[in-house]
Predict the structure.
Amino acid sequence: MTYFVTQLVSGLILGALYALVALGFSMVYGVLKMLNFAHGDLYMVGAYVGFFLIQWFGGSSAPSTLWIPVPLLVTLMFVSAALVVGGLGVVLERFAYRPLRDAPRIAPLITAIGVSFFLQNVALLLFGGQYRNYNTPNFISLYSGIKIAGVSIDDAQILVLVLTVVLMVALRLLVGRTTLGKQMRAVATDREAAEMMGINVNRTISATFFIGSALAGVAGVMGGLLFNQVYNLIGFQQGLYAFSAAVVGGIGSMPGAVLGGLLIGLTQSFINGYVSTQYVNQLTFALLIAVLLVRPRGVIGRAQLAKV
Amino acid sequence: MGEPSAGPAVGADEWVARQAGRREYLPSWLGAAQRADERLGPWSWWAKLAFVGLVALSLPLLGIGPFQIQVGIDTLVLAMLAVGLNICVGWTGLLDLGYIAFFGVGAYGFAVLSSSQINLHWADYFSMPVVMIAAALLGLLVGLPTRRLIGDYLAVVTLFLGQIFGDVVLNDARGVLGGTNGIVGIDPVHGIGTIGSNEGYYYLLLFLLIATMAVLRLLETSRTGRAWRAVREDPLAADSMTIPVTRVRIMAFMFGAMVAALTGSIYASQQISVFPGNFDISVLILVYAALILGGTGSIAGAVTGALVLNIVYDGLLRNPTYSGYIFYGLIVLTLVVKLRPWRRLAAVLGATAVLGVIAHAAVGAVWPAAVAGGPQSGGWIASVIRDWVIVPSSPQTLGRFAFVLLVCLVIGLVQAKGWWRTALLVPTLYVASIAWEAILISPSEVAVTRNIMLGVIVIVIMISRPQGIFGARRVETAT
């Protein structure tokens, strides 16, 4: 029973992380109808931002070498990762994707693959190829936290879960209640009509990219805190899972992204716990294919009618 | 191109028609060649193929070295892959991001069947068809979901497939696939005759490339080829014209997979070994870059793209000296083409030179160690810019900052307008040169720099000329 709950908790946390990345991916898909394959690499950049902030404030190779309080540091990490990665997303949109807005559908996809490759290699050039370590247990104790059904959940995990839920609710309110959200939905439905209604399409798309990328950056810091490992290719793997999550839920749908993320996270966690640690990827892939064969537009997605 | 117009067409007056007729041919012998080409009519494509094939055949006879032969082999491999990928991406319009898995299946399949791994040592006329059929079946499996998955969903699924291939191979460390150790000691191509030298592989690959191109040319102009293009342009319309859309798509996947598998098996036997790293995303990017450089949808374009790209990427960018020539050459060329009038060009170049000399002298006077390094690219460029560019004795840190600064400056450059843009160009050029000499070209980073440039090439081609060198710009109707 304890084992089951452990797997459940780690699956939920993993799923929350995937959902956060998938949300940004899905938002961008919603307004531009393009798959931003570089989204996973934004996660990687976020993780690096967090790592360098820890280094900046004293490093965490030994316990308590930090010279600012831990809550402040963690807040700073999240905020600066969100700002830096959000800004990077806006720049990418401006330079790589905006010129292709009216190009054939396949062109921005190939560009996105190129951007992803570019980011991976720039990270390799700037940060080196070695694995970096957050050393989270040195400043957030593994033994503090709460115990549920005999399973201890440490502070970092609680932080990730709570923050994810808060961000999701905030995003929901932003898209549902604010003017910006309304503009986003309008652009997603019909860009030309939105433009005719006086909506600044370029600014709306930039804002969407900023928010979506910032979510990826925050997820990157969370990943760093939880898994402790940062190198230039983590983004590709995480991105792949997040893309699958978005696809399983139905690309472009925000509840779908959350659902898909949780589904993929829980599946992986239980495969890891009960089946095999080696074949996680293969079985996740099988799940993806199976869901798509039954529901080609994802769990929540609706079938589109082809217009002639 | 096309037939010379006899008179005014719809929407064009007589003068326009006459000018169009006059511009029909290039000057002097080029025009004569064009006329001859037109007289050949539909045979022109085959004549060009034969001509290029003959030129390529005679290359090894000119006495080029082993390195050049190896680059030639890699170019032919890349060209085969690009031609195969063109079936899916260019003709059928399916974004296949798992293409490299088929290449890997071909290479690993051949490696298992024709080596001491499980002691089979099959002759090539058994193992290659087996491998190709296996890859085609895998293509069928991947293609089956295309019945329902369209466009974006397919891209994610195939991207995942490519990742799965790598996982399967890596996880099989103790099995026949060898994990990270790969498979070594693969038989050379043997059967009808054994190939013992790289020249032999060059000829074999050349023969296979020309044969593949010929077969695909016949396919392109056949019923199936027309069906592929019809499905690409509008699946719904194709469906209502009784084209079996799903079957046609799956066929495209299978043909692409077979070409990739054939290439993979030759590649494995030529390399004598296969490793999981040979089939990762960087190869996929390379194939896509070759295809889009030449222009998707054109066989000749795919081959030309592969030729240009691989000679630059594999032949020249490995060498710091050539790499430097390409880097500075491209910058100067872009400036000459883009900066008008020439006074502005002269002003920018002069200002950059003066800025460099002053900066070098100032920094050298304050802190001599900061200019002690000297440029890292070779050739005459290094001696020219020795007293101009700032390179410290341990240049890595400065180089990284310069690279970040360069990216920021380029962003500012695109955003700036008018006079500001010209002014910003000067520091941008100087910082680019510092970043290049301090880190990008240093021996430990050359491989990374190559890949960064490849990523930039993909992005820049897609933005500036999405139809590639040979492709025709397609008209996209609103959906």
User: Anything to note?
Assistant: Chain A has one domain: 2-294.
